[in-house]
Amino acid sequence: MPTEAIDPPGITWQRVSPKYVTVGLVEWALGNLVAVLVLSLPLILVLAGWWVWPPLWLAVTVPAVMLALAIWRLLLIPRQVRAIGYAERDDDLLIRTGIFFQRTMAVPYGRMQYVDIAVGPVERALGLCTLKLHTASPGTNALIPGLPAAEGARLREQLSARGEARLAGL
Model pTM? Predict the structure, then answer.
């Protein structure tokens, strides 16, 4: 779903691998399992009779709300992955993210200091990687997660070469 307000015209976005949904699901499961278990502890203690405060309705509501938020986040993961894209242009790399809060970032090749590839255990098992772009500005949190490993390596070399060429031209 293109967003004309922030997307430059005529851009063909490259999408990340659909396998990245699995990475999001694993991260979701680990994070939410711990959160729901911790927030359910008062309910367990109240039901066991070991704790009289909080009232039962509160002990039920807190984990129920967390569970509802977790399920909503679960439903958003595939759409969030589809919203990630990048496009190589002559002078810069465009990166877009977000569903509700959309962001399109242009990173000029001449501003890139180095390009880094990171791989976590789940990404490694799926043959994916995350490309990180480092510039002089610490506010440029430019990363492209969910790239196939071969595409990440190609992009790293391509961006490094373009960055060096632009820097030499200054």
Answer: 0.85
